[in-house]
Amino acid sequence: IVLTQSPGTLSLSPGERASLSCRASQTIGSSYFAWYQQKPGQAPRLLIYATSYRATGIPDRFSGRGSGTDFTLTISRLEPEDFAVYYCQQYTSSPLTFGGGTKVEIK
Amino acid sequence: QVQLVQSGAEVKKPGASVRVSCKASGYSFTGYYIHWVRQAPGQGLDWMGWINPTTGGTNSPQKFQGRVTMTRDTSIGTAYMELTSLTSDDTAVYYCLRGGQLVASSSFDSWGQGTLVRVCS
Q1: Min Cα–Cα distance to chain B from A50, Å
Q2: Which of A69, A90, A96, B55 is disulfide-compatible with B47, CB 3.0–4.6 A?
Q3: What is the DSSP string of A10-65?
Q4: Which residues of B touch A30 (CB under 8 A)?
Q5: pLDDT tens-place values along chain B, 121 residues long
């Protein structure tokens, strides 16, 4: 399953709302979709699993939704520490796959 | 707390093999699958496969089959990933990840710190 993330880069200011998209080439079960955040020089961190469940310690400004082939990660109000690269992942079928990433940068 | 600690950076010549270790702590090693993912410089994430620490069973995508071997030593809570016939395209940071509890396909809630493998002549 190919995951296509858009946009490639999102330029926003702190306090703004960010909306990241991930589109799948085939239908994905909503229990089998996740989002990760990666900062430079660090390993990715799980943000959202099963489409809409926040991982342990993830603030509630992060939310996920979607179904079928279209999924969205929303950051309600960007904090300085949120500027990073975000990846989506599907685990509905093997091989497990990731999207190409969306970079959220400071405008 | 859950921790995955990987072995250090490696520099290899083309054609060589590399083995990366991943020591787990803070949870029951045999209760969760271990996956491996790699990330080439400036690129995205590429899933390499999983190992079931209980049975030793493995699965990897076709692109790595025949070149990747995943093993584990339950007595010391450590997983290993060996990649053979290295080329410059294998230069990447390799991560081990904790997968699902007794399920192969999952999201990944804990990641190792990453191991940089450089392949150069």
Answers
A1: 8
A2: A96
A3: EEE-TT--EEEEEEEEEEE-GGGEEEEEE-TTS--EEEEETTTEEPTT--TTEEEE
A4: none
A5: 999 999 999 999 999 999 999 999 999 999 999 999 999 999 999 999 999 999 999 999 999 989 999 999 999 999 999 999 999 999 999 999 999 888 888 999 999 999 999 999 9
